Structures are given as C-alpha cells and as structure tokens.
Request: fold
Amino acid sequence: MTIDVPTLYIVLVLLNFLQMIALYAQFKINKTYDGVGWWLLWSVFSLFGFGFTLLRDIPGIFAAVAILQNSAIVFGSIFVYIGMARFLNTKESPTAITTILLLFFSGFLYFLFVEDSSDRRGIMVNIALTTFAVITAVTMLTNRISSINNMMRFIAASLIVHGCLLLYRSYLMLWLPSSVDMFEPVFYNILPVIDAIIITLILTFGLIMLINQRLQSDITVTKNHFQSIFNLAPGAVLISTAEDGKIVEVNETFSLITGYGREEAIGKTTQELGLWQHNTDREWVVNDIKIYGQFLNREVKLNRKSGEEFIGLISGSVISLNDKPHIISNTQDVTEKYLAEEKVKASEEKYRTLTETTPNIILMHDFNGIITYINRAGLKLIQLPEKEIIGKSIKQFVPDALFEEVKERQKLRLQGFTDTLEYKTAFTTTDGRLLKIKVVSAPIIKNGKMESFLLVAHDITELENNLIELTKAKETAEEMNKIKSYFFANMSHELRTPFVGILGYTQIIGDKLANPDENGTLDNAELATMINRIMFSSERLMHTLNEILDFSKLEFQQVKVNISEFELNFILDDVCKTFNKTAWNKNLEIFCKGLPDNPQILSDEKMLRSILVNLVSNAVKYTPEGKIIISTDIIVMEKKTHLKLSVSDTGIGIPLNKRQAVWEAFRQVSEGHGRSFEGTGLGLTITKEYVTMLNGEISLESEEGEGSVFTVILPVTVL
Reply:
C-alpha cells in the first residue's frame, strides 16, 4: 500500500487546527496558570509551519517558504519549552534559547543560500527540535509537582522518544541517498510526518490533562484549606439549607459550645435540637434573612445539650452551595461577658450616689478597657456626654505616647496581679487639652475572678505644671548663676589684665626716668615698645568698657538709630588697619574687599562700625592660623537695596550645640577652654541687637575645626 505524503501533511495541518481550538479553550478557562498561553502560541506556529509545507512546490517562493516553515516549527518547540517552565513555576533559560537559535539559523541559512542541501537543512531542523524536546523533558523531570507527576513523566518520555526519532531521521539523511521530492512516499519522508502527528496528539491531550489534573489538585487543596478554617473558627459555625433549615455541616467549636456532636446535628434543624430558648429570636433571624440576606451581632439565649442556658452573639448570611441557597451562621459564647455586665449594673446602683457626689474622677472598665461607668466629675473634665463615653475604649482618651504604659498595666492584670496600682497618666479632652491625673486602680473581684476595674483619679494638671515651672525656674536660676559667675570671673580678668599691663609698664618707665643711675636708662626702642604695650592695654580696656556701656544702653533702650551719610569703604579700611597688627602677630592674613566705585551710603555709621569691629575681633580672636576675609556687596532683595557684609575665618569653628549660645550675653564659644580666648562675651549680643535695630538679618555658618562665616544683610540707601 502506498502512503500519500501530502495527505498526511493535510491531516497534520487539520490536527494542529483542532489542537489550536482545544488549547485556546483551555487558555480562556485557565488563565490562572502561567504557560498555557505559550502552548497556544506553539499550536498557532505549528499550524502555520506545517501549512507552509504544502506551499513548497510553488515556483519562485521556495526559499521564503522553507524559512517560514522551519522557523515556525522551531519556534513552536521553543514555546512548548517556555510554557512548560512557566507552568511548573520556574524560569526558562534565555541563554540556551538564544544559543540554539543562532546555531540553527546560521546552519540553516548556510545550507539554503551558500551550499544548497535539503538534507543538511533537515538535519539542522531535527537537531534544534531534538534539543528543545530534551530541554523540555529535563525541565519536567527536575521541577515536579506531586499531583501531576505521572503525566509529566509520560510527556517527558514521549518528548525524548520524539527526539530520538528526529535524530534517527538525521542519521538516514546522512547515510542514505536523499530524495529530491519531500512528498515522495519513502520511509524517511513518512517518518517525520507520522512522528509529528503522534507527538501532536500526545502533547495536546497530555497538556490538557496536566492542566486539569493540576486544577483538580488545587481545588482539593483549597477545599481542605477552607475546611481547616471552618473547623478552627473560634465561634460555633453552622451551615443549614435555606429551604427547610436542615443542618448540613458544623465545626468542632459548635460541638464544644452546644454539646451536640457532628453526627447528632447533621440532618436536623436547630428547633429539633432545641437550641432556641425563645422562638421569637429564631423568627427575628428568619425575618432578617428574608429581607437583608444576613443578620449581625444579635444576642440571644440558647440551650446546650445539657439544658444549661448560655448567651450567644450570633451572625449569619446566605451563601450558595451546589447552586442551592444555604445559611451560614457563627455564634460566640458571650455568657461570661453578659453576666459580668449584669453584675456591674447591679453594683452601679449601689454606689452611684457616692460616686456622683465626689470631686474625684471615678471610672470603671472591663478587661478589654471598655468604659462601663464614669461619674459626673469625669464627665465634667472630659467634656463629653455620658452616652459618648460609655462603651468606648479607655485608650481613645489616652495619648498615643502612653499606650505602652496602658499595655504593661493590662499585661500585669492578665498575669493575675490583684493589688492596688498607683500611677500618673494623662488624657485628652474634647477641646484638645492634655490633663494630667493621678490614678488609684483596683480590680473588682467576683467569685475569685477579676471582672472589671475601678479607677479613682484626681486632676493634678495644675500641680504638675507648677512643678514644671518651678523646675524650669530653678534650672534658669542655676544657669543665670553659672553665667553670672562666669561673667564676673571674665570681667575680673578683662579689667585686671590691661590694668596690670598699664601699671607695670608705667611703673618701669617712671622708675627709670626718676632714678636713671640706679635703675638704668631706656633707649628709644624700649620706650616705644613699652608705650605701644600701654596703648594696647588701654585700647583693650577701652573696648571692654565700651562693650559694657553699649550693652547697658541696649538693656535700658537708650540707643537710638542715627542715619547719616558716610563712606563704607573708609570704615572697612579703618577696621582692617585696626586689626592688622594683631593679625600679623598671629601670622594671620586679613583680606578686605570694599564696595566698587567707593559709594556713599545712608545708615547708622556708629552701629555699622561696631558690627564690623565685633565680627572681625571675633574672627581674629578665634583663628589661630590661616586667613580672615571681610567682604561687602550691594544686593537687591524684594526690590530694595541691601548691604551684605560677610566675615569668614579659618578658625576653631562653633559646635552645633553652642551656635545659639553665642548670641546670648556673657556667653562664649570658648567656655570650657579656660582663658585661651579673651573677651567679655558681649560682642555678638551687641552686634545682633544693632542688626535688629537696623531692620537687618545676621546668620552664621560654621563647621567645628573648619571655621565660621558671619553674614549681615542690612537695608541701606546707596547715593
């Protein structure tokens, strides 16, 4: 019998078309699983690949058809591999795919355009298909899912056999005479078509079975998961039919609460079990189910199997099971809570008169912190009506910062601590005030158990605030005393040191002039040196006294702004010359940058000079080496002309924690450095006051050990 090869290809194309329809249906149904879409792509590419085979004999398009046909089939095998990897929750290897494709296309195109050989092209296709079949099989064998292991092994084995057949055909192509016509009915032309039909059928049904088996496994796992949740639910869960109320399922907690076992309950109604103590409660539930489809948090009286009464908090809703309406309900046993509330109500009446007349806050709450009672004094402080407090958690009135303390006390009570607790805490009122209270808390014990807690508190807000103010005043006084001691010690040094220099050198000059024979004579150089030192000490003394006087005037508001016309560059040059010698003695460089064109400005000359002197003096004082830069500039801010003064140094810098203190009177950044740096501690205070009086701003930038930059911005008029 002769087998018609073109007919086989037509069958294969039709088979791939049916396969595509089947996989498309699976893709639409099972989008949850990764990989199904890739298998659908494989089906589409295979359909086109085998379909192109029927077009090979059309003149003029053989090369294009050959490329499209074989590329589609190879890409289809890649999609099978990618789909399987994704389906098994792993990743495909892009490197392997890219490498195989490069090798395939290189060889295939070479044997198509350079050395035309249909056998060699077929071998390249077979090797590519075999490689992807083996990779897919290995992926399936190394990434197993227990519920579909058997089917995975079968498909993997089929792929390996498929690969072996392709390799066998490649062997035939190498060693047997080739057929010019691929549709000639010879063995190795028929073999690949039969192999393609078989592997298509196996993969189609195998992949569909894989999807369905995994879906069934996931459904089983989900069912078991929800069954576990159902059984472990803290309340008594019951499922009954909506039509006749027959119980179809109960959980373990139902049996624990009611005493009825699962076998006893299933098939009966709640009425037949005698659960309802009052039929009106059941009628209420049925009515809500009919109207709203649910019922929520209804307290009802129920019976246990033993006949014991208990209070149940019941909720439920309508659900659909097997396309039929059912009712699922959850019942919490709240008997103890209910009885505790009843006892609290009874105790309330007894002590109401006493608690309502006391000026102290009296409050009761349960184990969960729910407020059950508060007296008039408490309502007055919190400023809320009783109905807005009762039933609320006590935590609602406690600041967040104190939650941990509340939890600690609650933990202590849960551990069985029954002694009285005394503590301070706080709560917020409706108008946002924070009230501080002192609390005495004691448990209310009934039948040996702590049922609730009684809190007696009184408002200590004013007392605490007074204590805080007293503490602040004490700290301020101590700080002022410290500053005073530092100031007097500093002033003693600042006044005595130049006096000693003046008196010492004056005495030496006087002695030598009065009795030159006995004490010797002074040459002009020595005399000039001593006079210069007397002048230096006098200037230092004058500077100290001026600072004290200026500060005193500022304190008594006796300083007035006096606007006049002057040359800023002249003042700047004068200040720089004043400090040049001191800077030279310390090996410091001073750079002064005046205003261009030497303009006249309108401002307070005396204040501006004092600002410059104080800032430059500070820079020279606290810069052991390096340089000091004094710069000026005219800038425009908010459409107004301003003078910008900047004094930067490479000195010791100012620590972050002392940057605010430098503006305070009698304070120095060098506090704690002994007497390494002279000064009264008033210079920057006076400077800031002058800047403020001139409607300006002063800022400070500093890095400890790197230096500081003081910047002053003043509104001026440039003439």
Confidence is low (pLDDT under 50) at residues 672-677. The longest strand covers residues 309-321. The radius of gyration is 49 Å. Residues 156 and 242 are 50 Å apart (CA to CA).
